[in-house]
Specification:
By secondary structure, the chain is α+β, with helices and mostly antiparallel strands. The chain has a domain at 2-13 and 66-217: Sulfite Oxidase, Chain A, domain 2, CATH 3.90.420.10. The protein has helices at 19-27, 43-48, 94-98, 127-134, 158-161, 214-217; strands at residues 2-3, 32-35, 38-39, 62-65, 80-84, 90-92, 103-110, 116-126, 142-147, 153-157, 166-172, 175-176, 186-189, 201-207. The strands form three sheets. The chain has a six-stranded mixed sheet with strand order 1-6-5-14-9-10. Strands 7, 8, 11, 12 and 13 form a five-stranded antiparallel sheet that branches. The protein has a three-stranded antiparallel sheet with strand order 3-2-4, with no helix packed on it. Bound molecules: the ligand Nc1nc2c(c(=O)[nH]1)N[C@H]1C(S)=C(S)[C@@H](COP(=O)(O)O)O[C@H]1N2 and molybdenum atom.
Length: 240
């Protein structure tokens, strides 16, 4: 848990918001989707046109990657940088995370396009515990998350980040999180749709305003509550 310098944070690629552009990205293969071990390149189109839930893959994960590749990170090389509006910027190794109190639960994973996987077992550290460890400064409003893929990004408000079922996960489906699923460490935001659960988590920055992430720039709600509401902790009525 070495103290770490605060480094500038990448902003997401600014592409036009809206379904039309999202379909364009998918059609170009910019969003890679795998089912099991088979590449389903056509699925990008189906997802973009809202047919994701009708496709015949049953209760199985679709493996998503904006870049079409999976960053391969050895567990021993894994680092999670936490910086920004914190008392003690820190970098955590996997051993550091595993030494923290363990939280585990079983939930249904739901992608906003309609597919879901029931009874998924998750294990990791509550994000709130990590925030307590680094100490959140007054004036902190939100968290920005960055991925080893240098493409995906996400955000949560401070209140959302303190929910007990928002975890930094290192186990999923009864085993260490696989590379395809975002291992060694991914975010799991249980009360929200799958796109909030950023894979290959590399950095968390505590910031003074919500910075929408990749999927939000492509048309998904900033607050991705599973029940479709804007949620109790929506910081800004203009954000859905
Ligand atoms: N880095 C990264 N994280 C990501 C994505 C992605 O493309 N890249 N896709 C998101 C979406 S839309 C969903 S539904 C879930 C899918 O998780 P899975 O790939 O483990 O099935 O990951 C989320 N996290
Ligand atoms: Mo998704």
């Amino acid at each position: 848990m070495a103290p770490e310098e605060v480094t500038p944070f990448e902003t997401p690629k600014r592409v036009n918001v809206g379904r039309r552009v999202f379909i364009g990205l998918a059609a170009l293969g910019a969003v890679g989707v795998l089912v099991g071990n088979k590449v389903q390149s056509f699925l990008g189109n189906a997802v973009g046109s809202g047919l994701g839930g009708l496709l015949p893959f049953g209760d199985r994960f679709r493996i998503y990657s904006i870049t079409g590749t999976f960053p391969k990170i050895k567990t021993s090389d894994y680092r999670l940088k936490v910086s920004g509006l914190v008392q003690r910027p820190m970098t955590f190794t996997m051993a550091d995370l595993q030494a923290m109190p363990v939280t585990s639960f079983v939930k249904t994973f739901q992608c906003v396009t309609g597919w879901k996987v029931p009874d998924v077992h998750w294990e990791g550290v509550q994000l709130s515990h990590i925030l307590d460890t680094v100490g959140v400064q007054p004036g902190a409003v939100a968290l920005s998350f960055e991925s080893y893929d240098h493409a995906d990004s996400e955000s949560l408000t401070i209140d959302q980040a303190h929910l007990p079922d928002v975890i930094v996960a290192y186990r999923m489906l009864g085993a260490p999180v696989t590379t395809e699923h975002g291992g060694p460490v991914r975010l799991y935001v249980a009360p929200m749709f799958g796109y909030k659960s950023l894979k290959w988590l590399s950095a968390i920055r505590v910031v003074n305003q919500v910075q929408p992430g990749f999927w939000e720039y492509n048309g998904y709600p900033v607050n991705g509550w599973l029940d479709g509401t804007t949620g109790p902790t929506n910081p800004d009525p203009n954000l859905t």
